[in-house]
Amino acid sequence: MKKKLFYIVTFCLAGFLFFSGLAYSHCDTLDGPVVITAKKALETKDITPVLKWVKKENENQIRDMFKKTLSVRALSPEAKEMADMYFLETLVRIHRAGEGQPYTGLKPAGEVDPAITHADKSLETGSVDELVKDISNEVTDGIRKRFEHAMEKKKDADKSIDAGREFIEAYVIFIHYVEGIYNAAKLEGGGHHQEAHPQKGAAAGHHKHEK
What is the distance between the alpha carbons of residues 74 and 70, in angstroms, rounded to a whole number? Predict the structure, then answer.
């Protein structure tokens, strides 16, 4: 039973982390998979690996842009830098549009949520064990912290109106956090076009109350 609960909680938080709006989409960061794939494609002059990141209807546009980029980048180091950046921005913009998400520019490297980084790594190594361990620890700590805070406030809840309100605030933080994790577990499917999920406030929006 405990083992089953462990996995339920783990994947609840995993779902929440992937579909919440807490972090930048890693597809529009300079160290994200789209940009990394595109840079390698430009160096090898093979666009094939890039095409999986765009819809079929956008394939010809990317192919054409790729050819032009290869021509321009051969002119000079300065031209190469400008051409590469223009191609990367165009590719990410079209990829984001295919997800139904706005493009707000390429983000600096290092702004990816750790959970997403670990998820990518698990696919590279073929093992999800470290991801399960890390996320389950985050879930456990998060629930226990909010539970203990609510229990502490509950002790004095009936002593005064102010004390009662403090308990209710702690109660709301605890319940909404758990609710966010539980609702994330019920999400089906999973393209990352769902990043801005309505449940994002359930666990994230209440952190400010704990400060």
Answer: 7
Give the angle 58-59-65 at the CA atoms, nearest 5°: 95
Phi-psi region of 24 (alpha: psi -120 to 50; beta: other; left: phi over 0): beta
Q: Cβ(7)–Cβ(85) under 8 Å? A: no
Q: How many CA atoms lie within 13 A of 114 on its CB side?
A: 7
Q: 133-153: buried (b, 16+ CB within 10 Å) or exposed (e) per residue?
A: ebbbebbeebbeebeebbeeb
Whether residues 119 and 205 share a domain: the answer is: yes
Q: Given CA atoms 101, 104, 106, 109 in this order, what sign does their dihedral have? A: negative
Rounded distance between C-alpha atoms, residue 33 and residue 27, angstroms:
6
pTM greater than 0.85 (yes/no): no
pLDDT of 119-162, one tens digit each? 878 888 899 898 888 888 888 899 999 999 999 999 999 999 99
**Residues 33 and 119 sit within 8 Å (Cβ to Cβ):** no
CA 22, 27, 29, 32 torsion-angle sign:
positive
Model pLDDT for residues 171-198, shown as the tens digit of each residue: 999 999 999 888 887 776 544 444 444 4
13 and 35 belong to one structural domain: no
Domain that holds residue 33: 26-99
